[in-house]
């Protein structure tokens, strides 16, 4: 969501705010939040998706996250925001800060805690985020194709971190940005929907296979992400936490 006090008149006129929900989430909105007014909740146009292409909702969610240029072919820019985040800055100001000032075309923050894929793989398995066998298969494939351990002191490293925090993405819909997004989605579809596992491999492969075509990626610090978008728990999550505390 986005707070109205942070949206300028120019953004209200030029920016489209779109929220994708499935039918179950739509029912939750009706019961817990508010009834959409003419298909809108505040500035947000509500789009109810049906006939979903995957049974795994985590994979379904990667479609609007990674392929906005396919969903909105006439849009020049897009900002992805996870459902638990709320924008704290005007969208046009975010485009200026993360893209326009230094000529970037894709902006995503590094992870708040982990920077090496080896650590991210171990954490995903520890928390049972996905089938361990599939994670191992993906990880072994990437290593065989040249992915190395992240070394923060390496002056030739391609990225400031090999693990992103993908809840907030700002991008220009340029050819290279669109290509990267499609390649990243391909990895999510081929292996696991845990997109942190495939980000660095996708970026390095893109650079390796397109040495003469620059891709202006801005991997910014996580504190900048938290300044731009604040975490808010879902109402159902808050109720669950209250119930758990009450039973302790």
Question: What does it look like?
Answer:
The protein is of the alpha/beta class. It has a domain at 75-247. The chain is built from 12 helices and 9 strands. The chain has helices at residues 9-14, 23-33, 57-60, 62-66, 68-71, 91-98, 117-126, 132-144, 175-190, 199-209, 222-228, 235-247; strands spanning 17-21, 40-41, 44-48, 77-81, 85-87, 106-110, 164-172, 217-220, 229-231. Strands 4-7-6-8 form a 4-stranded mixed sheet, with helices on one face. Strand 2 and strand 3 (44-48) form a beta hairpin. The two termini are 32 Å apart. The model is unreliable at 235-248 (pLDDT under 50).
Work out the helicity level: 40-55%
Strand arrangement in the largest pleated sheet:
4-7-6-8
Describe the biggest sheet?
4 strands, mixed
Computed structural class? alpha/beta
Given as residue ranges, the uncertain stretches (5+ residues, pLDDT < 50) are 235-248
Question: Which H/E pattern describes the elements?
Answer: HEHEEHHHEEHEHHEHHEHEH
Calculate Rg over CA atoms.
19 Å
Number of helices: 12
> How many runs of DSSP E, i.e. beta strands?
9
Domain TOD1/MUCI70 glycosyltransferase-like: 6-234
Pfam families: TOD1_MUCI70
InterPro entries: TOD1_MUCI70, TOD1_MUCI70_glycTrfase_dom
Protein name: TOD1/MUCI70 glycosyltransferase-like domain-containing protein
């Amino acid at each position: 969501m986005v707070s109205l006090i942070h949206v300028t008149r120019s953004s209200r006129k030029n920016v489209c705010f779109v929220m994708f929900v499935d039918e179950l989430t739509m029912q939750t909105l009706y019961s817990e939040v508010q009834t959409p007014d003419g298909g809108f909740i505040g500035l947000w146009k509500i789009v109810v998706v049906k006939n979903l292409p995957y049974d795994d909702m985590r994979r379904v969610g990667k479609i609007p996250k990674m392929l906005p240029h396919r969903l909105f072919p006439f849009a020049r820019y897009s900002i992805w925001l996870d459902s638990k985040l709320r924008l704290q800055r005007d969208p046009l100001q975010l485009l200026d800060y993360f893209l326009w000032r230094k000529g970037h075309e894709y902006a995503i923050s590094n992870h708040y805690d982990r920077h090496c894929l080896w650590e991210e793989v171990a954490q995903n398995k520890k928390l049972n985020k996905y089938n361990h066998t599939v994670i191992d298969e993906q990880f072994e494939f990437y290593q065989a194709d040249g992915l190395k351990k992240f070394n923060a002191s390496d002056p030739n490293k391609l990225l400031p971190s090999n693990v992103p925090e993908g809840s907030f993405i700002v991008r220009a819909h340029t050819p290279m940005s669109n290509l990267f997004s499609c390649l990243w989605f391909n990895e999510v579809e081929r292996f696991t929907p845990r997109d942190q596992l495939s980000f660095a491999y996708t970026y390095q492969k893109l650079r390796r296979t397109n040495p003469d075509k620059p891709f202006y990626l801005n991997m910014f610090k996580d504190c900048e992400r938290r300044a731009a978008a604040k975490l808010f728990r879902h109402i159902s999550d808050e109720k669950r936490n209250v119930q758990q505390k009450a039973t302790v």
